[in-house]
Structures are given as C-alpha cells and as structure tokens.
Design goal:
This protein is an alpha/beta fold. Helix content is 37%, strand content 17%.
Length: 214
C-alpha cells in the first residue's frame, strides 16, 4: 500500500455531492488506496489526486441521474464512475460491467464491503450483454466516442429515455465530430458537452450527454 501521506485529503465539496453517503464515499476512497497497486486499479501517480480526479470527479455525474434510473457502467474497472454515482444516488440502480475476472471479483467484494444494495456486478463484455432496458449507459476511459456508441447504444435501446453519458476530456468536441455519422445513424439527438462542478469541485468533469430520439 502507498504511503498514506501521498493520498489526497477529502475535498470539502465531497460532502455536498455525497450527502448522507459521505461515509461510504470515504470508505470507498480508502479501499481504492488500499487495493490500487495490488489490482492495478489506478496509475501509480494517481493517489495524490484520488478524490478530486476519481472519487469526487465521478460523483459529479450523479446530478444527471434521476431516482429510478437503471444505469449501466461499462468497463467499470475500479468502479468508476459507477460506485461514486451509486453512493450519491441510492434511489437509482447501477450495474457495473467488467470483463476481467480479477477486477469483477474485486468489485463484488467492494459492493459487499460498502453495503451498496443498489449495485450489481456482471462479469461480461458490453457486446455480450443481452439487456436493453437501461435508461443510462456510462463509461470512463473505455474508448473513443465513436466506438463507445457502438458498445453502449444496444443497452439503452429498450428504454424510452435512453441516454449515454460519456466522461471525456478536452478532446470531446473532436470526438463528437468523428462520431457524428454514427450518432445520426443510431438515432441520437444532438450531443451536449456538460462541464460539471465548475467553481465548486477541485477538478471539473466533462461529460458528453447524448439522448436517443423519442
């Protein structure tokens, strides 16, 4: 385990984002710090930004989730962004999809350790899932938007309000341009680039939100 001195202190804004779930968010951050090296969850230089770049940054997406939503987090890996979102919105249900056995087993243990009753873990590739009823599909650092839409769109096809939330960085406009034909072909509305946490969080989250046409 890394030296505790290298682990970022919890930013004040975390309590606003996680509310009553702040203790679970703290426990999750501690688990990430404890297990990151063993399971290859985060890069070796990421612990000094554990909260601002990962736990809190993912939790910011919760403002885009409604109670009752069925959210699928594809390529969940370290549980990002799914677990912070699930902590923040206990009234929604989250499915974490991870193809690697070692990481999916780790995710199961984390969900149990945190007592997250609104989360299930499925070991699978996105393209092998047969469910189509998710209302929201999300992913972080999985693939470029064009490829990501191929993976995520089938999972929300059966929902009346199917939405993709793709965590992206400064190249979001470029990725949108490259995926324009696919978005049109798949039946999406015009995409939005949202900046979450501006003026509040240590690091903002850039999210591309795309909704299927009704």
């Amino acid at each position: 385990m890394e030296d505790q001195q290298n682990i970022e202190l919890e930013p004040e804004y975390s309590q606003v984002v996680f509310g009553r779930g702040i203790d679970k968010a703290r426990a999750y951050a501690a688990i990430l710090a404890r297990d990151s090296d063993t399971f290859g969850l985060l890069g070796p230089r990421e612990l000094p930004k554990l909260w601002s770049r990962h736990v809190l940054n993912s939790g910011l997406l919760s403002e885009l989730i409604q109670p009752g939503d069925k959210v699928v987090d594809v390529g969940s890996g370290a549980g990002l962004p799914g677990i912070p979102m699930a902590i923040s919105v206990p009234e929604a249900h989250f499915t974490l999809v991870e193809p690697m056995e070692r990481r999916s087993n780790w995710l199961v243990s984390v969900v149990q350790e945190l007592g997250l009753e609104n989360v299930e873990v499925i070991r699978s590739r996105a393209e092998d899932l047969e469910r189509t009823d998710f209302t929201v599909a999300t992913a972080r650092a999985v693939a470029a938007l064009d490829k990501l839409l191929r993976l995520l769109t089938p999972l929300i096809r059966g929902s009346k309000s199917g939405t993709v939330l793709a965590m992206k960085g400064s190249k979001a406009p470029e990725e949108i341009q490259l995926a324009a034909k696919r978005m049109e072909r798949l039946g999406f509305e015009a995409p939005e680039i949202l900046t979450l946490g501006e003026g509040k969080a240590p690091e903002t989250a850039t999210v591309v939100r795309i909704r299927l046409k009704a």
